[in-house]
Amino acid sequence: MAKIPNIVPITDLRQDATSIVKRVNDSGQPVVITQRGRAAAVMVSMEAYEHSEHERELLRLLARGEKEIQAGKGYDLEAVLTQADSLLNEAKP
Q: How far is residue 76 from each of residues 20, 38, 81, 83, measured CA to CA in Å?
């Protein structure tokens, strides 16, 4: 069953930003901010944002690697594994 998102009108955010930020940080769940009844933005914790950005960077590197493979370029496996270990170590808290 799909989870119902936390939805907060922008007027509520203006009136009580502190508690909404606390809710996002405590729950770890994103909050959808609406404006005129439509989704306008999503608020996430800094931890969730950093995790998402890290995953996006890994996907970008994988896509670049796929393009390089298709172009006939290649890298030494040991160098790739060393770089991957480095990226994974950066992600650890």
A: 48, 50, 9, 11
